[in-house]
Design goal:
This protein has about 400 residues and is an alpha/beta fold. The protein contains 15 helices and 12 strands. It has 2 domains: about 200 residues, Glycogen Phosphorylase B (Rossmann fold, 3-Layer(aba) Sandwich), CATH 3.40.50; about 180 residues, 3-Layer(aba) Sandwich (Rossmann fold), CATH 3.40.50. The strands form 2 sheets. Strands 2-1-3-4-5-6 form a 6-stranded parallel β-sheet, with helices on one face. The chain starts with 7 loop residues before the first helix and ends in a 7-residue tail after the last helix. The protein binds uridine-5'-diphosphate.
Length: about 400
């Protein structure tokens, strides 16, 4: 198992000493995070490392998952899409089903903690079903820059009851009387998904996936979600292939809180499944190693999203020295710096995407330069050690240490 000390080799002893110092003041505090799934998507990805490290730091940090029904997750996906701009009008029945699942969950899930963190809209309204005895923080990972009125009005009534709201970008802050902070998500450099792999290991994993390691790879690694626009990625790939012999790997998974994944995947299979240069892979065996190997083996990673909260996949690829060509939406431009760590285009600029990918495929020197700069950018800004520190600072604001006599 990875231990805190293992991060010293990556970020240096002074960063680790600072983290330990900050955690010391919070030792023994009981904190709980509540989210909607333990696998699939960026939130689960982060918490899977974060919770272990917080506990090793002496904080009694737990993680609970709401007991959603299929009906509930269909409704929360509608809310999610509505927040990201899809036209959505929530019905009274939908609101009732959403609230009833959370009311029931509040009975299963007793809270005796010093602080509660709620991730994303799915468990947001839980706050209504407890006698609030501690600070509650809503950590929203969704792009809130232009939410639909119906879902936002519904959610805002609950957000107002929180002590603070944490978002991933300045543009996601809302005009509400609630403390608002920005914390950028981060990746764990030592997890199976991001750790170093040998050339032999990469080859073995690619072989298991049925991907030919000898042909240049363009990859998009994402949940199968319409906002991630995997079909757009396939169209761009076909433009590139007219000029360069290459292949596309669309590696995706589904999450238990996202009922749309399989539908999007089936649509892709129908449209692109017979193209011998497009590999569409879903919920693969050894998921984390597969993501790792594909992001390392790819000459370029694409992220063609039309909306994106942050897009951890960009940091993951950049950390591995692979340049990223991405849409300029959500948190992607924070990670993909145009002409420095990759290239950024508006989501509808298919030709621009194709040109940038061609340039990277043709020019090894450029590829290496962007890759090196990308890796450094992630080390400087998007590693889990920085995330630990940001949250420890926030905890300290809400959980003042006892004064020594
Ligand atoms: N992911 C995965 N397997 C896949 C596709 C994606 O494990 O087949 C992971 C990906 O590596 C990343 C997370 O899912 O860690 C996606 O996070 P991101 O912030 O990019 O998007 P979200 O799904 O949260 O919208």
């Amino acid at each position: 198992m990875v231990k805190l000390n293992d991060y010293t080799a990556i970020v240096g002893p002074s960063v680790m000493a600072r983290i330990r110092q900050k955690a010391k003041k919070l030792a023994g505090k009981k904190i709980v995070a509540i989210s909607s799934t333990h696998q699939g998507g960026g939130v689960a990805e982060i918490l899977n490392s974060f919770v272990f490290l917080m506990n090793e730091l002496g904080i009694n940090f737990g993680w609970r998952i709401i007991h959603g029904t299929p009906d509930f997750f269909e409704i929360t996906k509608i809310i999610h899409n509505g927040l990201q701009g899809a036209e959505v009008k929530l019905t009274n029945r939908q609101k009732q089903v959403y609230l009833e699942v959370l009311r029931r969950f509040s009975v299963f899930n007793h809270l005796h903690h010093d602080l509660v963190i709620i991730h994303d809209p799915q468990p947001l309204a839980l706050i209504d079903f407890y006698q609030k005895k501690q600070p509650w923080i809503w950590r929203c990972h969704v792009d809130l820059s232009d939410p639909g009125k119906s879902p936002w009005d519904f959610l805002a009534a609950y957000v107002k009851k929180y002590d603070a709201m944490v978002v991933s970008d300045e543009r996601y802050k809302k005009n509400l009387a609630v403390g608002q902070k920005i914390i950028h998500p981060a990746i764990d450099p030592l997890s199976d998904k991001n750790k170093k792999l040998t050339a032999l290991e990469i080859k073995r994993v690619l072989k298991n996936l049925g991907v030919n390691p000898a042909k240049p790879i363009i990859a998009q690694v994402s949940r199968f979600d319409l906002f991630k626009d995997p079909a757009g990625a396939a169209e761009i790939f076909r433009l590139v292939r007219k000029k360069i012999n290459c292949q596309l790997v669309l590696l995706g998974n589904t999450a238990s809180d996202d009922p749309e994944g399989v539908v999007v995947y089936e649509g892709l299979l129908k449209k692109y499944g017979r193209d011998k240069d497009i590999k569409i892979l879903i919920n693969v065996h050894e998921n984390d190693l597969a993501v790792n190997a594909v992001q390392r083996a790819a000459s370029v990673v694409m992220q063609k999203s039309t909306k994106e909260g942050f897009g951890l996949v960009a940091a993951e690829a950049l950390y591995k020295g692979t340049p990223v060509v991405a849409s300029g939406v959500g948190g992607l431009p924070l990670q993909v710096l145009n002409n420095q760590t990759g290239f950024v285009h508006p989501p509808d600029d298919f030709l621009g995407f194709a040109r940038s990918i061609e340039e990277i495929l043709k020019n090894k020197k450029l590829r290496e330069k962007l890759g090196e700069q990308g890796r450094q950018h992630v080390i400087d800004h998007f590693l889990i050690t920085r995330l630990l520190e940001d949250w420890l600072d926030l905890f300290a604001e809400y959980l003042p240490a006892k004064k020594r006599r």
